[in-house]
Description:
It comes from Sporomusa ovata. Helix content is about 15%, strand content about 35%.
Amino acid sequence: MCLKITTQVEIERRKPQGYIDISRKEDGFLCIDDRMKAAYEQAYIFRFVLVEK
Protein backbone atom coordinates (compact mmCIF):
# COMPACT_ATOMS: atom_id res chain seq x y z
CA MET A 1 0.00 0.00 0.00
CA CYS A 2 1.38 3.40 -0.99
CA LEU A 3 0.33 6.50 0.87
CA LYS A 4 0.46 9.85 -0.81
CA ILE A 5 1.25 12.65 1.56
CA THR A 6 0.97 16.27 0.54
CA THR A 7 1.73 19.43 2.46
CA GLN A 8 -0.83 22.11 3.19
CA VAL A 9 0.38 25.52 4.38
CA GLU A 10 -1.93 27.84 6.30
CA ILE A 11 -1.30 31.40 7.44
CA GLU A 12 -3.10 33.46 10.06
CA ARG A 13 -2.65 37.13 10.81
CA ARG A 14 -2.30 37.78 14.52
CA LYS A 15 -3.47 40.89 16.29
CA PRO A 16 -2.61 41.88 19.85
CA GLN A 17 -5.06 40.69 22.48
CA GLY A 18 -4.66 43.78 24.65
CA TYR A 19 -2.70 46.94 25.08
CA ILE A 20 0.80 47.23 23.63
CA ASP A 21 3.59 48.46 25.88
CA ILE A 22 5.36 51.16 23.89
CA SER A 23 7.46 52.45 26.78
CA ARG A 24 10.10 49.68 26.51
CA LYS A 25 13.25 50.57 24.60
CA GLU A 26 14.97 47.16 24.70
CA ASP A 27 12.73 45.55 22.03
CA GLY A 28 14.97 46.78 19.22
CA PHE A 29 12.37 49.06 17.67
CA LEU A 30 13.51 52.50 16.59
CA CYS A 31 10.25 54.32 17.21
CA ILE A 32 6.63 53.84 18.27
CA ASP A 33 5.56 53.51 14.63
CA ASP A 34 7.85 50.49 14.16
CA ARG A 35 6.46 48.87 17.33
CA MET A 36 2.86 49.41 16.14
CA LYS A 37 3.60 48.01 12.66
CA ALA A 38 5.18 44.91 14.18
CA ALA A 39 2.18 44.31 16.43
CA TYR A 40 -0.60 45.01 13.91
CA GLU A 41 0.78 44.50 10.39
CA GLN A 42 3.70 42.09 10.59
CA ALA A 43 2.60 39.35 12.99
CA TYR A 44 1.75 36.06 11.26
CA ILE A 45 1.56 32.42 12.27
CA PHE A 46 2.35 29.71 9.72
CA ARG A 47 1.03 26.17 10.11
CA PHE A 48 2.25 23.25 8.03
CA VAL A 49 -0.11 20.26 7.82
CA LEU A 50 0.66 16.84 6.33
CA VAL A 51 -2.39 15.48 4.50
CA GLU A 52 -2.75 11.81 3.57
CA LYS A 53 -4.54 11.05 0.31
